[in-house]
Design goal:
Elements: H1 44-55, H2 66-72, H3 78-93
Helix pairs in contact: 1-2, 1-3
Length: 94
Amino acid sequence: EMDGLKNRKDIFVFGATNRLEILDPAFIRPGRFDKIINLPPPSKKKRIQILKFYSKKRKIEKQISWNYLANRIINCSSADIAAIMNESTIQSII
């Protein structure tokens, strides 16, 4: 229940952020949400899978070291990895 709003049933609010530290503490104080789910950054295996997924339609070096790349982006979220792949594609054609 939010301050000044009536309690309603069957209302779902979904939100996501990679920067929880910048949210106003009043917004996420206890009682505001029934559940808050924290998802850790992807594992090394998942990072490699994400890199391969975003490289499918791109021309990349055949000898690329997926382990090396995955080790360089340890704390990146899936969205961060997608952004890195997109930006690297843009930079490669400039």
